[in-house]
Amino acid sequence: MLTFDDGTHHHLMGSAVLGRDPAADAAHPSAELVPVHDPDRSISKTHVALTVQSGAVLVEDLHSTNGTQVHNPDGSMTTVLPGASV
Which of 18, 21, 43, 79 yields a CA-CA distance of 20 to 30 A from 8? Predict the structure, then answer.
């Protein structure tokens, strides 16, 4: 389950592409498109891909303008390089 800052929730099943106005891309043709309300415009139109795999969620930055960071359970952060999955 994804929970966004505005309190909305989304069940993640398979893969999804998130952004202000996400568009399908060749690397994720069957991904669900999930628009994210972002009045501050801190995320790109097509920002990140999330994929459920073996009980984990893989995060892939889709060459976003501001980049992507994953907040780990231990409190540390991992920067996601464009095109790579974390």
Answer: 79
CA 37, CA 28: separation in Å to the nearest integer? 21
How crowded is the C-beta side of 70, counted as CA atoms within 13 Å? 19
DSSP string spanning 20-43? Answer: SS----TTSTTPEEEE---TT--S
Give the Cα separation of 40 and 11 in Å (integer).
Answer: 24
Confidence of residue 13 (pLDDT cuts 50, 70, 90): confident
pLDDT score at 2:
87
Residue range 33-52: average pLDDT?
93
Q: What is the DSSP letter of 12?
A: -
